[in-house]
Amino acid sequence: MLSRARVLGSGGAVPTGRRETSSLLLVADNSSEAVIVDAGTGTRRLVTDSSLLDGRTHLHVVLTHFHIDHICGLPFLGFLRNIEIVVWGPGRAFHETSTEAILERHFAPPVRRNGVGAPCVEYDEGETEIGPLVVRARVQERHPGRSMGLRFGDDLVWCTDTGPDPGTADFARGARVLGHESWSPTEPGHTPPAAAGQIAVDAAVPRLVLIHVPPHVADDAVLREPAAAVHDNVSVASDELELL
Question: 221: Cβ–Cβ under 8 A, 6 or more apart, which residues?
Answer without folding.
Answer: none
